[in-house]
Design goal:
This protein has 5 helices and 5 strands. By secondary structure, it is α/β, with parallel strands linked by helices. The chain is globular, with a radius of gyration of 13 Å.
């Protein structure tokens, strides 16, 4: 992907997830991405998940569908705690292009730039 792309974030869970989403957003901005609202058409959708929520799977699927509806061609990356716990389940969700767990999520810019 080149530097003219847009990225949208949807973050679930704790304050730490929100702080980490902000850090990743800064990394992507430095890589040339422009941040847009999640409800807007974006080239990349980043869903930062939480495993603590009771309905983590259902929430994740609903957010993926929302992103697909907004931009069927968008690249969808699911990151975070739930992605760490259930990577195979998440990879099986139609439309998900990339799954990164807790330790890999800060490498998202690398994966996007080399996608």
């Amino acid at each position: 992907m080149n530097s003219a792309h847009t990225v949208a974030f949807h973050t679930l869970g704790c304050k730490l997830n929100f702080a980490e989403s902000s850090t990743i957003a800064r990394q992507l901005k430095e890589a040339g991405f422009s941040k847009v609202d999640f409800g807007s058409a974006a080239d990349v959708y980043v869903i930062n998940t939480c495993s603590v929520t009771e309905n983590a799977d259902r929430e994740c699927r609903a957010i993926v569908r929302k992103a697909q509806k907004t931009n069927p061609e968008g690249f969808i990356a699911v990151i975070g705690c739930y992605a760490q716990l259930k990577p195979d389940e998440i990879a099986g969700i139609e439309g998900v292009d990339l799954v990164l767990g807790a330790h890999e999520k800060f490498n998202l810019p690398y994966y996007l730039i080399h996608a």
